Amino acid sequence: MAISLRSVIPVWVAAVLGAIAVGIFALPGLLTWIPVVMAGAVLLTFAIQLSLARKEGLVERITASLGGALIVLVVATGVLVGIGLSTYTTIEIAFPR
Fold first, then answer.
1. 84/79 Cα distance (integer angstroms)
2. Whole-structure pTM over 0.90, yes or no?
3. How do residues 28-77 score in pLDDT, each as one tens digit?
C-alpha cells in the first residue's frame, strides 16, 4: 500500500499545483487550461507508473491517480468559476457600462 500511495500522491499534488497556477495566471481562460492540467496529470501518471518495476496493481494505481486528479480539478473548477463570477459581478456593479 505504501508504494501505491507514493506513486499516486505526486499526481494529486501536481493537479493541485496546476489548478492554483490556472487560478493565478489564466482565470479568464479557465475552461481551456483545466483540461490541459488533466492531460498533464495523465502523462505524469503514465510516466510514474511505467518507471515502477511492479506490474501488480497497475490499473488500480492509474485509476487512483487519475480519479484523484479529476476530483481535485472538478473542485478547483467550481471554486475558480465561483471566484470568476463573483469578480465579474463585482466589476459590473462597481463600473456599469
1. 9
2. no
3. 888 899 999 999 999 999 999 999 888 888 999 999 999 999 999 999 99
How far apart are alpha carbons 13 and 4 in whole angstroms? Answer: 15
Copy the grid coordinates of residue 1.
Answer: 500500500
Q: CA nearest 45: which of 33, 58, 55?
A: 58
First and final C-alpha spacing in the chain: 58
d(CA 34, CA 20): 10
Q: Which residues contact 65 (CB under 8 A, 6 or more apart)?
A: 7, 8, 11, 12, 41, 45, 48, 49
Q: Tell me which residue of 67, 63, 86, 70 sits closest to 18, measured CA to CA.
A: 70
> Quick one: pLDDT at residue 54?
84
Average pLDDT over residues 2-30: 89
